Amino acid sequence: LFWHTSISKGNRVYVIGGTNFSGDVSSVYLGIINSNGVIDNWQSLTPLPQASRLGGAIILNNTLYYAHGTTILKTNINFDGTIGSWQSAGTLPHFLSGFGLVEHNNHLILIGGKIETDPDTEKVYYTRLNPDGNINGWNETNHLPHVVNRGQVIKNENKLLLIGGAGPGPEYFTTTYYTTINADGTVEPWATSSYTLPQPVCCAGIAISTNNYLYITGGYGNGYLNTVYYTKLQSSSQELAVPLLKQT
Fold first, then answer.
1. N or C, which terminus of the chain has less Cβ within 10 Å?
2. pLDDT (tens digit, 9 = 90+) per residue, 115-145?
3. 138 Rama sector, left if φ>0, alpha if ψ -120 to 50, beta otherwise
4. How many CA atoms lie within 13 A of 32 on its CB side?
5. pTM for this prediction
């Protein structure tokens, strides 16, 4: 299975959609992480209404959201981690795949991706979740410095990072971009970190540990990768090129 979407909360991991060598799939799996870090088995859950790949997912409270194409779906998470039936929660601004999707302060943020009939996009959108868990329309906020799809996107508190990814050509990137998410779901202009990946990477796994280490595993960059890279996340004051000014 590849080009699937994975999302975790607590000791539960959900794997949604993806592709195998027979084609796209609609499957949804649940794995429970034991205290020793091992997942003993995977449980099949209610599948997506149709096969899907390169989507995005978030978990907010007890609701699992999955977005792909033009649709955002939602389902309730039961006390045992299983899910109910999938329902529509709204639509995306246009057909998208390979984008980043995060939640902040009850807002959804879409980062980059690939449009169905056009090249990769640099656009970033945001919307607010209504009390019923649905959305009504999207607004644009500060775009990425260039087009990116299948980049490694992750949120750390109110900071948003996009690392690597792919562009037209295809071209694969080593860059790290970051920004601050505002309370209303907009993002500040993107900055470029002075630290880059050792090699171009797209389509990889990304995670942050509890002690603020960032990990990027596998992916693709002019060939399939089995590498694992890590770095310590720094504060904004260490990253931004701002002079230190004192009265003394």
1. C
2. 876 678 999 999 999 999 999 899 999 999 9
3. beta
4. 9
5. 0.91
